[in-house]
User: Which sequence fits this backbone?
């Protein structure tokens, strides 16, 4: 049994830890929030400048912008390639959170170019990577060890997510949930919350605005709607799975092309222009107009979610720079609109449920996605969003838009999976003894054999 002196020492040590990480996370949140605000303002300005150009010139800028973005990353900071959150997860697991300082300006400029000219990508990944780069530099300045560096880098992820979407609590949980499948680290929760809240308020003080509560009416919670929630979760889980596979297919397609580095972004830009000529410009850029349209209950083309996945995969695989969460939210909202046409439910409600559910399935972050739904649409949506997010998370399987996520626990004991390895390297097998049909067949066969046994 601990002595009174040891108990007092324990409490004082914990108080010191709380004060230390509160201060560090506060500084990190302010720095990342200010950087995110700068990024968002520059992005708005860049997009406005491009849209002011004649349509012919505007579309010609797309392949040229992708080429410039790819060249900038390849020459100055190869670590900044692809979508940012994945690179941060990889850095945490493989390099104890060490991120080169050069990543910050290169990622900022490359993403601004990609999104301004109309590349289909998101804005949260770059902010997460920039935030992680800032906190990694802060950890180096303070001569932190590996564990403290990781904690501070996770704060950078949380702060970047919170400042971009205006969801401080979801941002805090996302930062600690996205690293592992089936495991969260509670010792990082306090600094993640502080950095997320600080980044959110810093961004608002610098003039960044976020939409008010978007959903005004929620159906009464009943058994019927619970069944629809279960069906919706299964549907959105399959959509998330398709989203992951499409992104992976496009990445492998561009990797296998025997083209020089500068040729791939030009090809990608040409493919994006061809898709725009066929289907219109709604699938370029962030796609926030389509998300808002779906959340107003307006009709969205039925194949919109698949096309957005494809164009996002092309943009990121050919050399464009950006994030993956905003396109995933587009996919979720559009899939919700499509599910509404199948089920007859309110399209606004279905889009509001689909938006976080597809994120939960694709990124393996059901808790963060549920909280995000509550922060965006109000607490009344929580029961429906939670059910759909958890089911979608399970249905999407052991796959992810972030291949460097570590698989800590399988999503179901019906499967045997390789644990403690990146999700894209794990193999799985069915645990046949847990399959209901197999067990019924086994016991049924034994019963039949027993009844056929001749009596003595």
Assistant:
């Amino acid at each position: 049994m601990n002595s009174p002196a040891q108990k007092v020492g324990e409490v004082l040590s914990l108080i010191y830890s709380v004060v230390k990480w509160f201060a560090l996370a506060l500084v990190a949140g302010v720095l990342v929030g200010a950087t995110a605000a700068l990024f968002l303002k520059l992005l708005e300005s860049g997009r406005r400048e491009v849209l002011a150009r004649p349509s012919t010139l505007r579309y010609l800028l797309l392949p040229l912008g992708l080429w410039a973005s790819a060249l900038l990353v390849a020459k100055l900071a190869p670590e900044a390639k692809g979508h940012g959150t994945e690179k941060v997860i990889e850095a945490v697991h493989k390099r104890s959170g060490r991120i080169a300082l050069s990543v910050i300006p290169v990622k900022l400029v490359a993403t601004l170019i990609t999104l301004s000219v109309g590349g289909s990508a998101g804005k949260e990944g770059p902010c997460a990577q920039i935030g992680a780069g800032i906190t990694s530099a802060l950890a180096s300045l303070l001569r932190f060890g590996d564990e403290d560096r990781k904690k501070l880098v996770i704060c950078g992820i949380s702060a970047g997510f919170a400042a971009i979407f205006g969801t401080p609590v979801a941002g805090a949980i996302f930062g600690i949930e996205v690293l592992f499948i089936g495991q969260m680290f509670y010792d990082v929760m306090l600094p993640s919350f502080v950095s997320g809240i600080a980044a959110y308020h810093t961004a608002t003080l610098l003039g960044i605005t976020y939409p008010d509560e978007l959903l005004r009416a929620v159906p009464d919670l009943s058994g019927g709607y619970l069944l629809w929630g279960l069906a919706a979760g299964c549907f959105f889980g399959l959509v998330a799975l398709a989203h992951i596979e499409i992104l992976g297919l496009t990445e492998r397609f561009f990797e296998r092309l025997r083209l020089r580095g500068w040729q791939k972004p030009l090809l990608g830009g040409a493919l994006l222009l061809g898709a725009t000529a066929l289907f219109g410009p709604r699938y370029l850029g962030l796609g926030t107009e389509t998300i808002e349209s779906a959340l107003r209950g307006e009709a969205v083309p039925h194949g919109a979610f698949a096309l957005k996945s494809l164009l996002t995969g092309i943009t990121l695989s050919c050399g464009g720079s950006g994030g993956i969460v905003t396109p995933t939210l587009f996919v979720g909202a559009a899939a919700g609109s499509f599910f509404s046409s199948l089920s007859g439910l309110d399209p606004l409600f279905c889009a509001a449920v689909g938006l976080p559910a597809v994120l939960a399935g694709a990124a393996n972050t059901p808790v963060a996605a549920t909280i995000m739904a509550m922060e965006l649409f109000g607490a009344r949506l929580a029961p429906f969003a939670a059910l759909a997010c958890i089911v979608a998370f399970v249905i999407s399987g052991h796959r992810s838009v972030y291949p460097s996520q570590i698989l800590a626990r399988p999503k179901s004991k019906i499967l045997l999976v390789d644990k403690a390895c990146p999700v894209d390297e794990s193999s799985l097998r069915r645990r046949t003894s847990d399959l209901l049909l197999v067990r019924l067949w086994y016991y049924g066969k034994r019963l039949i054999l027993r009844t056929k046994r001749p009596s003595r």
Remarks:
- Residues 42 and 112 are 7 Å apart (CA to CA).
- The chain has a mean pLDDT of 88.
- DSSP finds 17 helices and five strands in the chain.
- The two ends are 67 Å apart (CA to CA).
